[in-house]
Amino acid sequence: IQFSALHKMKTYFQYASVFSKIGFGAGFITNLYLIYLTVFHVKKLVGAYKIMVISFAVMGIVSAGWDLVSKPFMHNYDEAMIYFSLADGNFTFFQFDIAFYAMMYIVVLSFITVQFFYRYLSLFQPKMAQKFEGNGVFWCLGYPIVPGMVYFSSFYMYCQSDEYSDDYVKQEMLSNYELAIGEVPRFVIVSYNADGTLRWKNMCFLMQGVAVIGLHYLAIIYLSLQMHFQ
């Protein structure tokens, strides 16, 4: 039974790699086609929103490409979450890659929020929306970097593995992935110490992450409802 389960896990890993490559290929082609249509054929999209659409497509390509480079995986185990990379190479580089990949998710989410905010202003406060034209569009493009860097720095500082977290998950990693925890670029989040007390560094990241993600989703929901009902 253990051999069968391990064989299936290896098969899933192979599938995951194949799907990542297919996802990048599909994302690259469709986003490149979207950029082509936006630049050369869609006449009603002008100014700041046109730049936003192109930038969002570029983000999609970068995000999918970074997935191929960093090969990130997440594993939930009991009271722990393990973010690790299966890429071969420099340990420090690929640890940075994992954090950057997490950052890209926040950047994309923040940029979607900016688009909703711009649409809302265009409908209800067009004079204010005009402030985002010209050089003002760089505020739209620059804002997502701020929550992205907040998330990245918190993730990188507060989720570094230590002796306790590595001991907590090493058998899980060995049995499921045949990987020695000390040899894998990783971040490990464990909620509690052995005595039941909170691991405050990990909790600080979780609270900050929930706040950043939750605020942007709430903004999207609020702006969507306002545009729908008004």
From TrEMBL:
Keyword terms of this UniProt record: Membrane, Transmembrane, Transmembrane helix
Keyword Membrane: yes
Superkingdom per UniProt: Eukaryota
InterPro entries (alphabetical): 7TM_GPCR_serpentine_rcpt_Str
Transmembrane stretches, start-end: 12-36, 48-66, 98-118, 138-158, 205-225
Any single Pfam family the record assigns to this protein: 7TM_GPCR_Str
Statement: the UniProt record of this protein carries the keyword Repeat: no
The protein's name: 7TM GPCR serpentine receptor class x (Srx) domain-containing protein
